[in-house]
Amino acid sequence: MSRLSTLIATGALAGCLVLGGCGATDKSGAAEQDKYAGLDEAIRGWHASIKSTDDHCKAKPDGKGCQGFEVACKGEREIAPAEQAKGVSAKVVVAMSWEGWDAVRSEYRASSGFAEFNKVDGAWTRSDAGPVNLATCVAA
Hints:
This protein is an alpha+beta fold. The protein folds into two domains: 1-35, no CATH class; 38-139, no CATH class. Helices cover 32% and strands 36% of the residues. The protein has helices spanning 3-18, 27-35, 39-53, 81-85, and strands spanning 66-76, 88-102, 107-120, 123-128, 132-133, 138-139. The strands form two sheets. A four-stranded antiparallel β-sheet has the order 1-2-3-4.
């Protein structure tokens, strides 16, 4: 095997170990992966909601009033005992940024939003959250 092939194989193995074993059936790893199952879909739903409700996103008639959507951070939040009693099994704050059309200035301007996602009985719910530090995803 060439040195390049060896490096590629080693890098792939390291990536598998970092990602939790590439399909390992260890119950603790599976439980951790299931904890966040569906979160990306919930975030995509939030993205779609922003595009359909944000005034800047609706400002251009061509449907391109917002662009450059990017999840800036995701941070797990502590679940309070009262929330656990209500069935909350995961709690994550997410910050998203995008550029929205400013019709007055005829240019795109930076925008951002913050949401808290709670997983209850396998389904994610979303509510508005206050600003977070984008480096740590902790309340600002």
